[in-house]
Amino acid sequence: MADSSKPIERPLSPHLTIYRPQLTSGTSILVRITAIALFVLAILPVWWLAAAATSHSSFAAIDGFLQSWFGSLVMFGATWAIFYHMLGRLRHVIWDLGYCLDVEVSEKMGLGMLIGATVLTVLVAIIL
Questions:
Q1: Contact predicate 85/39, CB 8 Å
Q2: Could you identify which of 13, 57, 102, 110 might form a hypothetical disulfide with 27, taking C-beta atoms 3.0 to 4.6 angstroms apart as the criterion?
Q3: pLDDT in tens, 62-88
Q4: Is the full-model pTM beyond 0.85?
């Protein structure tokens, strides 16, 4: 029978304290965060449409919120999240096809996602 009183020394897997964060892992985590944020923010257009179908006062309340500076800021952030998440999903499709798997190219794609989402969001804000 094995001696269970003696602790078994096993190697530890890399931990956050010794792991150097990479741009690709950070952008991948941010894709997941934007997915959760967009899931929560999906309440806003549903609320807006439901209020439009019910009464004028309830529609005025949600429309007033969305037209306020804070509502505009929330919608600006949601627009950025949509573009960022879309570009992140596109990056994963490209990876799934076996392209752009080199570290240098992957990091450029991650930076491109951040810049691309920001540029597209600013364009939408200017146009609308």
A1: no
A2: 110
A3: 999 999 999 999 999 999 999 999 999
A4: no
CB-count exposure of residue 94 (10 Å: 0-12, 13-18, 19+): middle
Chain position carrying tokens 């931990």: 15
Q: What is the DSSP string of 9-75?
A: --PPPP-TTTPPP-HHHHHHHHHHHHHHHHHHHTHHHHHHHHHHHH-HHHHHHHHHHHHSHHHHHHH
Which among 62, 71, 60 is positioned nearest to 79, based on CA atoms?
71
What values do phi and psi take at 75, rounded to 5?
-70, -35
Residue 28: partners with Cβ closer than 8 Å, 6 or more residues away: 88
Q: Which of 62, 40, 42 is nearest to 53 (CA)?
A: 62
Structural tokens at position 87: 């570009």
Q: Which two tokens stand for residue 64?
A: 């007033």
Domains of the chain (ranges plus CATH)?
23-127 (1.20.1300.10)
